[in-house]
Write a structure and sequence with these properties.
- The protein contains 13 helices and 10 strands.
- The protein is an alpha/beta fold.
- The protein has 2 domains: 134 residues, HAD superfamily/HAD-like (Rossmann fold, 3-Layer(aba) Sandwich); 139 residues, HAD superfamily/HAD-like (Rossmann fold, 3-Layer(aba) Sandwich).
- It has a 10-stranded mixed beta sheet with strand order 3-2-1-4-5-10-9-6-7-8, sandwiched between helices.
- Helix 2 runs antiparallel to helix 3 and helix 12 packs across helix 13.
- The longest helix is centred in the C-terminal third of the chain and has 15 residues.
Length: 303
């Protein structure tokens, strides 16, 4: 019988998001041939952890001997020989469940998201992320300068999302950008009973919700999952966001309606393993405190 990833939460990740290849990347930008030679010379030297490695470690911890619920696939512009170092580094860091990878040697990798059925693509390459989002896949550019993940909750995966242009469409954000806060608030009150259209990260939230249900049923070896909505919305615009989640039959564990307050320190208290936001100012602020990714989506991120 053919092997399928259909029943799993599938995360595709670039080698630079998973491991700290920043020094190697600087060599690549100057001389690709020297980069390949450098990687070959370090095949037996495990790469240091990257920003998203703690997230990946916790995701894979949901797999049990009875059922593998998460699949992580390396999707990289690296050459196949450099891919050897990626797999060896994964093994050295105990990520033995990472067994699949696609290495394109400079060719655009995002087309392979389709056969993978990916629920998330994490990369340090902004152009690849933009194309993945255009194709309809949840994707974020990992800020490689982000603070490291907290170690306070080893048995609990924590993920935080912005709302508009991330979980939800940018419908309301467009009104805010064009007409200001008062018009935005009026629009949300007038349309409070109408669910917001889906945003690019709804499929990931839905997949995480299924994983959370398995955890609550005691099927994930003791691993738990906690989610948070962290948004610049405030009352009365908060209600439409909550009603939308109710319409989806998907809950979040925490919701922060900050009314324009800086998100960084609130995220520091929540301690997510990763945070997703569409606005560069918010995600840069967050990256000083927690691992963060920029979602190039919506009116604030023109093509």
């Amino acid at each position: 019988m053919a092997i399928s990833l259909q029943d799993k939460l599938v995360v595709a990740i670039s080698s630079r998001a998973l491991f700290n290849f920043e020094d190697e990347n600087r060599v690549f930008n100057q001389d690709p041939a020297a980069y390949v030679a450098l990687q070959r010379s370090q095949l037996d030297r495990p790469a240091a952890p990257g920003v998203a490695l703690p997230l990946v470690r916790k995701l894979l911890a949901f797999n049990t001997a009875e059922q593998a619920r998460v699949e992580v696939v390396v999707l990289s512009r690296n050459d196949p020989v450099s891919g050897m170092r990626v797999f060896r580094s994964a093994k050295a860091h105990g990520l033995n469940d990472i067994q699949r990878g696609v290495f394109t040697q400079g060719r655009d990798p995002f087309g392979y998201l389709r056969p993978l059925g990916a629920h998330l693509f994490l990369s340090a390459n902004a152009a690849d992320v933009s194309e993945a989002l255009r194709l309809g896949y949840p994707a974020a550019r990992v800020l490689t300068e982000s603070a490291g993940a907290s170690t306070n909750y080893p048995q609990e995966l924590r993920i935080a999302f912005d709302g508009d242009a991330v979980l939800f469409s940018d419908e309301a954000e467009r009104i805010y950008q064009a007409e200001g806060l008062d018009a935005f608030q009026r629009h949300e009150v007038e349309h409070v009973t109408q669910p917001l259209p889906d945003g690019p990260f709804k499929p990931l939230l839905a997949a995480l919700h299924r994983l959370q249900q398995a955890a609550q049923a005691g099927e994930t070896g003791g691993m738990r999952l906690r989610t948070a909505l962290v948004t610049a919305r405030s009352a009365p615009a908060h209600e439409r966001a909550i009603r939308t989640l109710m319409d989806w039959n998907i809950g979040v564990d925490e919701a922060m309606f900050l009314g324009g307050l800086s998100k960084g320190e609130f995220l520091r208290e929540f301690e997510p393993d990763f945070f997703f936001d569409d606005q560069t100012g918010h995600v840069t602020s967050a990256a000083a405190h927690v691992p963060s990714g920029h979602v190039h989506s919506g009116v604030t991120n023109p093509p």
